[in-house]
Amino acid sequence: MTDSLKDDSGFLWELFSAPGNKQPGPRQRAATKSAEPIQDDMTPTNAVIPPVTANITRQTKAKNTLSPPGADLLKAARSELGRSAHQQASSLDAIATERAIGAAIDKVAQELGESLTDVARADLILHLRTDLAGWGVLQPLIEDARVTDIHVYDYNTVVLQRGKVSEATGLHWPNREAYLAFVDRLLLKLGKSLSTQQHTVDGAFEDGIRICAVHESVCVGCGPLLSIRVPRLADTTLDMLIGFELAPRVVIEYLASLTRWGHATMLIAGETGTGKTTLLKGLGTQFDPTESIVTVEDTPELNFNHSFLRALVSRPPNVEGVGEVTLQEHIKTTLRMTPNRVILGEMRTPFAAEAFLESAQTGHTGMSTIHARNAKETLVRLESLLGRAQKSVAIDIIRQQIALAVDIVVWMYRDKRTGKPRIGEVIEVGHFVEGAIQIKPIFRVDHSSDEPLWLVESWNSYFEEVLSKAGVHLGRLDKTLLLEPKPHQATRSEPASRRGAA
Predict the structure, then answer these.
(1) CA of 76: how far to CAs of 83, 93, 138, 280, in Å?
(2) Which CA distances in Å does 2 have to 31, 97, 135, 278, 481?
């Protein structure tokens, strides 16, 4: 079924997506009002996303509902397949052939004394094949390049996201037991499980897809909750970042030049889903091939294509409360691994922030992402994190540590009009002088403009010599910067306001 649908993305989108103005709760269904098409960071700018239809969603939902006897047969057949996989020492995916599924259904139907018509038997086989193969019910959404996130509230409610816009779907499992079995199967592949003792589980698959599962015991009126983030790029290049319209070319080249230099510690800030990791991956292509790189993450997702990359992943405590390995422990370990760069996937905790900044102060160039609402607030958030880790240290000492460790802050946001991620601000961090950290704003988005427009805040840099050698001359830039025109667009006229006219 999936193969026949994936060739026609327009039909697939209409079949499985029903947008609404509000995010639906566990008992709410698709809204009837269509949303305006948007583009996310993985969608080509000339792509047209077709409108979606709630009526087809309701039809799909009704068609996929099993009767109670059918649901019992489905559960029993799944258990039978599980026993067969265990006896053969094989994975469930490996034995989930149509013949094996049909044999399991026939066996449990005979044991339960149920007689099946050919249509009912074929329907059960279709359900089990969909449930056991790959991502099961969610496979069409995983295969659609426009879907960036999938949120499952319970067995009957699946919500997709394109960019930051949520849309209800008609996808669902035939019953709660089928959904629980699906969640267990996903976690089993990661070597993890969900329980009242381990109520939240994070993980990532080899293809970069990340999941977060939350046990129903800590959910209200729904659950277990499942959040899936689907990366749409195996490799990210600078040209791709420019093509995604994160910022004008010169802004990307500015960041790439300082990354290639190898002596500037950079923080990429922003809210969830603003493209921080995408930018980090793109800049990672500029690492010198002879450098030694060590990444430290809670969930592995960076996977730089580099010959001398070593990756460390934190580990939560087991059910007995032992065996935990924290990010800060790993960062301290990296200091004995003689790296050129230490990359912290996300700066979340006070002690991880302290260890990362200490690493940067001792000469290890670093990069990390952090949640913040603007570039200046990033420094305030660092103060807060360090203050919690160093409760007896004066604020001036904390600010000196930040000024010594951090060189560049890049703040990202998602454009509300287009849904695209953008680089909103770039600032350089200077010395600590008279109780304050000196900063130099370099680029900033002009939010009052009707089109994406960046302002050049400064025509000189703390890294002027490095940038000049790389061919980036801030003093020659116009006061305003526009995105590069696409091939199908008319060429925009050059901005009239140059430095001399400003």
Answers:
(1) 11, 17, 22, 47
(2) 25, 15, 11, 29, 44
Q: Which two tokens stand for residue 317?
A: 């405590």
> pLDDT value at position 57?
40
Token pair in block for residue 75 = 């559960």
pLDDT in tens, 198-222: 889 888 887 778 899 999 999 998 8
Rounded CA gap, 274 and 194, in Å?
29
Distance CA 63, CA 263 (A): 60
How many Å is the maximal CA-CA distance in the chain?
Answer: 88
- Percent of the chain as helix, strand, coil, to the nearest 5: 35, 20, 45
Where exactly are the structural domains of the chain? 2-229, 238-290+361-501
Q: At 433, which helix (H) or strand (E)?
A: strand 421-433
Question: Which backbone phi and psi does 323 adopt, to 5 degrees?
Answer: 90, 5
Which conformational region is residue 223 in: left (phi greater than 0), alpha (psi within -120 to 50 degrees), or beta?
left
- Residue 61 CB burial class (10 angstroms; 0-12, 13-18, ≥19): middle
**What's domain 2-229's architecture?**
2-Layer Sandwich (3.30)
Residue 453: alpha-carbon gap to chain centroid: 26
Residues in the chain: 502
pLDDT digits (tens, 9 = 90+) for 124-167: 887 777 666 678 889 889 888 888 889 999 999 999 987 678 89
- CATH 1.20.1250.20 describes domain 238-290+361-501: no
pTM of the predicted model as reported, rounded to 2 decimal places: 0.69
**What is the percentage of the chain residues whose pLDDT exceeds 70?**
78
Query: Which range is least confidently modeled, 68-77, 259-268, 296-305, 400-409?
Result: 68-77
Report the distance separating Cα 194 and Cα 211, nearest Å: 12
